[in-house]
Amino acid sequence: MIYEFRNPMPVETPLGYGMLLYVRDGGTFSNDVYAIVMDSDGGIRHMLSDQFTFVRNDTFGIRAEIKSS
What we know:
Layout: E1 2-13, E2 16-24, E3 33-38, E4 44-47, E5 53-54, E6 56-57, E7 62-63
Antiparallel strand pairs: 1-2, 1-5, 2-3, 3-4, 6-7
């Protein structure tokens, strides 16, 4: 099953910043796979939940300082 987010959520990955598009259920014995659109090039990368962190989510009060380069 695939769940597409109505409002893409900003995340930070080892490859840079991006937005969560959808999550695919991995089933009983597998991890869920998240599709993330990368800010840098618009490419879509698939990652597991331990490979990214939320940058900001006002609903849950999650806020992080974005590091400037």
